[in-house]
Amino acid sequence: MDGLFEPDAEWERVTRTIRERGMPEISVAPGYGRLLTMLVAASGARSLLEIGALAGYSGICLARGLPADDGLLTSLELKPEYAELASANLAAAGYGDRSEMLVGTAADSLSKLEAEGRRFDFFFIDADKENYPVYLEFAIRLANPGALIAADNTLLRGRTLNPDKQGPAVQAVRLFNQTIATDPRLIGTHLPSYDGLALAMVR
Ligand code: SAH
Ligand code: DHB
Ligand code: MG
Fold first, then answer.
1. Residue 7: burial class (beta carbons within 10 Å; 0-12, 13-18, 19+)
2. Coil, strand, or helix at residue 148?
3. Whose CA is nearest to atom 1 of ligand 2?
4. Domain extents for the chain?
5. Are 114 and 142 in contact (CB under 8 A)?
6. Is 145 exposed, middle or buried, given 0-12, 13-18 or 19+ CB atoms closer than 10 A?
7. Is the C or the N end of the chain the one with fewer CB within 10 Å?
8. Which positions ≥6 away from 124 have C-beta within 8 Å?
9. Which mutation among 16, 26, 103, 109 tests ligand 1's pocket best, with the greatest number of atoms within 8 A of CB?
10. Side-chain half-sphere CA neighbours of 12 within 13 A
11. Which pTM was predicted?
12. What span, in angstroms and rounded, lies between the C-alpha atoms of 71 and 37?
């Protein structure tokens, strides 16, 4: 169904900056980007936390769901050069004053945010797959009641469903997927389009 949509000019611009730098082309699928925008707008979320910025495409999709005059995207990125590009791409899309970028390991940044008492209405988990269970526990602790959690790549290109695959990322994402599906603190579900997306609401 991707052909039904008008091409996303921001996706094209961000992807050009990714290719220019020889970075991996692993921005979230535009079809899921639209879902992120829709969920932020429909839920009325104002404080957004993204784990894994790359070049800023998913951040742009999240910020698009904010009202014109309110809300903030906080984005966590390990690599300084990616963080700089993501900030520049968010600014070029018109969200420079609606976004902040924290550079370093997401676990360190999450610990700092927790120590500062920060709380969020919406989480997008999309960084190193080995730490998805860690990021989910942080998200639940940093969540305002009713907050939404989305996470990309829950299928790992089919590896999470293949019993022959037992690497650390696969095992971590399997545990993450199980928690989304069964944890009583959450109302969760799984979408199998693209590379898989988990969705949950924190009760
Ligand atoms: N959300 C982006 C894509 C993210 S790709 C988008 O859809 O546009 C995964 C990102 O996670 C990469 O930029 C990678 O550098 C970052 N990352 C990997 N390990 C990390 C860690 N430990 N802490 C923070 N970011 C990390
Ligand atoms: C890959 C895709 C992603 O969306 C991601 O966040 C990390 C890796 C991949 O296809 O390798
Ligand atoms: Mg991803």
1. exposed
2. strand
3. 26
4. 2-202
5. yes
6. exposed
7. N
8. 36, 48, 49, 50, 51, 58, 62, 150, 151, 152
9. 26
10. 4
11. 0.99
12. 13
Q: How high is the pLDDT of residue 163?
A: 97
Q: Return the closest-CA partner of residue 185 out of 171, 172, 200, 199.
A: 200
State which H helix or E strand residue 170 sits in. Answer: helix 168-182
Ligand 2 — pocket residues by CB below 6 A? 26, 126, 152-153, 195
Supply the DSSP string of 33-51, one letter for each residue.
Answer: HHHHHHHHHHHT--EEEEE
Mean pLDDT by 10 residues, the chain (203 residues): 95 98 98 98 98 99 97 99 98 98 98 98 99 99 98 98 98 98 98 98 98
The CATH architecture that domain 2-202 belongs to is 3-Layer(aba) Sandwich (3.40)
CA of 83 to the centre of ligand 1 (A): 9
Q: What is the pLDDT of residue 148?
A: 99
CB 72 within 8 A of CB 46: yes
Q: What angle do CA 100, 101, 102 make, to 5 degrees?
A: 125
For 184, phi and psi rounded to 5 degrees?
A: -65, -15
Which residue type does 46 have?
R
**Cα(54) to centroid(ligand 3), Å:** 9
Q: In what order do the strands lie in the sheet with 143-152?
A: 99-103, 72-77, 47-51, 120-125, 143-152, 197-202, 186-191
Q: What are phi and psi of 51, to 5 degrees?
A: -110, 105
